[in-house]
Structures are given as structure tokens and as C-alpha cells.
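stuck on this one:
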Amino acid sequence: MKLGWWTAVLLMLSAGCGSINEASGSLGTKPTPSPGAKPAVKKELPWLTVPGGQMKTTLFYGPWQCRQEFMNQCQVQCASEGYPLMGCVWLADLKFDWKGRLVLLPVDVEAGSRYGIWHCCCNYPKLPTDKKEVERKRWDRFRESFREDWSKKFGEWPSDGAKSWPGHHVRDLQHGGDPVDPNNIFPAKPSVHDLYNRAYPACYGGQPPWNTVGPDLPYTDN
């Protein structure tokens, strides 16, 4: 069973160093970009003090076609829930750099990990408009406390001036996403959030490119 990204990263931090490579699979913490890869839109957050050292979070934004590994997991997920798979959107990668000292040995160490966030567009039924609005109001009430908690664990929630970036729900509210589950929310650059909002209807509609597999790593870190 795939851990939610928030849960997985907190487990990583409690261990004192990075070892989760959900996004890079067998490629390790420094995966090789696929041919034709282009620099990703990214956001680097400041270093944050964590147990045993310091951590820096960098967000790389798609949307990209899902790699084969993610598409396979979506096929399993959708089948287990009883809905056909229509497509898959690879939304972002979260990269974590960690530096500190080992507990057992007085040695300075550095480590890192990546965690991929993608969405399986199973053929979920849409919520009626009134129920969707109820869920949106739950998110409105939860938003500020969530951002504060997120900032304490990963670095200050990004903003453009005085305007905070929107929180993107991985499984959207229209298709039954939980509005207050931390594993279902991450900060998205406003222009990227617009791209997500355009990609989701096409993904749920089984339209290209979201219904086909993409490269293992479609972006560079530059």
C-alpha cells in the first residue's frame, strides 16, 4: 500500500535521514533525466531545523505524464476500488536534502530523497454541486491551520508577496477527495495550479497525453 506523501516524509524525518525514493524508483536520489527533459518549474524553501540536523524542501512541478511505475499503481488502485482507470497525472516531485550528524558516530552526513506525487484518474462519480460546496467550506475552515502545520514541518508555505499559494488537492473535491487530509494537499504555484485544473478534466476523460505512459524522469533540476 502506498503511503501518503505527508506520512512518508514524516517517517523519513523521524529516522533522521532521507531514504524514500518514491519518485525516482530504482534510480536513487540523483536520477538521470530522460532524453529531451526540460528544466522544471521549482520552488526551494529555506533550510529548516529538524531532529538530528537540517532539512531543505524543493518542489518540482509538472504536470507530466505518469511513468510506468505510477501508471501500474493506478491500475491496481482503480481496480481495487471498482472503477476503470481513465488516466494518470504526475503532479510534482518533492526533493528533501538533509544534513546533520549521526547519533551513534560523531560524523557529519548529508542525505536526500525524492517523493513523487501523482493522481490516478479513476472513473469516480462526481459529487453533486451542493455536496462539493460543503467539502470546499471544510477546506476553507481548515486552510490556515494546515498551512501553519505544514510550514513547521517542511518550511514556510510559499507565497507571492502577501498572497499565499493555493493548496492543491491531489484527489479533487469534485471526485470525492478529502478536503482536510494532509496527504491530499500540497502547495502549488498559481500558474501551475491552473495547469492542474486544465489537466484533470482531460485525464478523467481518458484523453491524451494522460492516458499514456511518459518517461521515467521528464525534467531536470536546473
